[in-house]
Amino acid sequence: MSAEFDELMKARDNPTEEEQNLVEFSDEEGYGRYLDLHDCYLKFINLKGAEKLEYISFLSSFDQLFDIPKDRKNAEYKKYLEMLLEYLQDYTERVKPLLDQNELYGKVLGEFEKKWENGTFPGWPKETSSALTHSGAHLDLSAFSSWEELASLGLDRLKSALMALGLKCGGTLEERAQRLFSTKGKSLESLDPSLFAKNPKAKGPKKDTERNKEIGFLEAQVYDYIEILGVSKIYICIYLSY
């Protein structure tokens, strides 16, 4: 390993004329041989709740985004991902100028959508959130031939059945029974919108889901760029940091 390290150092300190004339790189990037993640590292360790890693430790784990708890993947974490992704995109543009990054974006998006929908994207398992579903217990109406028969079940049972459908559950016993019986044999989409209960909190979970998906897609792109660049660049970067 020592001989290999010496060769790497020699190559970094003595770039070919062709390498020098191509594009600009920082000293740490060694004319496109290594990654320079110092700025991303500083951004990461200043995230709320982030472990204060040494730079070497950060380099060996920054691609393991799936290990970061979801409750820490907030707006600041998203900004960190955007910064990391922007660097990887810029670096890739300099070392692989012929790579079509627009085509890459489409490929990553397609793969991500499938994994997200199936709940198989790393670090984001599919969950059934009670906040996204109606409470209450469904009632099979096929056994009832009139709303009067439904009324015999009582206020509480009718309320529970109405809640399960997302319908208004207030009113008298007769009103509840009639409202519920009116849904027999119909799909929810065909019901009068005025029958549904207002749910001002519904936008909250939906907004959270959309935000999480945006973060997940940023992670997906980071994973892909790291794969394209090759892990060898990461480990070389570690050696040169000692």
Describe the structure.
The protein has 242 residues and is mainly α. It has 2 domains: 22-125 and 206-236, no CATH class; 147-184, no CATH class. Helix content is 56%, strand content 0%. The chain contains 11 helices and no strands. It has helices at residues 2-13, 17-22, 38-45, 55-61, 75-95, 101-118, 147-151, 155-165, 173-181, 203-229, 231-241. α8 runs parallel beside α9 (173-181). The longest helix has 27 residues, at 203-229. The radius of gyration is 28 Å and the shape is elongated. It is found in: Nucleus. GO terms for molecular function: RNA binding. This is Splicing factor 3A subunit 3.
Write a brief structural summary.
The protein is an all-alpha fold and 242 residues long. It has helices at 2-13, 17-22, 38-45, 55-61, 75-95, 101-118, 147-151, 155-165, 173-181, 203-229, 231-241.
* Biggest beta-sheet profile: none
Number of extended strands: 0
Please give the radius of gyration in angstroms.
Answer: 28 Å
What value does the average pLDDT take?
A: 81
The SS-based structural class is mainly alpha
> How many domain modules?
2
Share of helix among residues?
55-70%
Keywords: mRNA processing, mRNA splicing, Nucleus
GO cellular component, one term: spliceosomal complex
Domain SDE2/SF3A3 SAP: 120-198
Protein name: Splicing factor 3A subunit 3
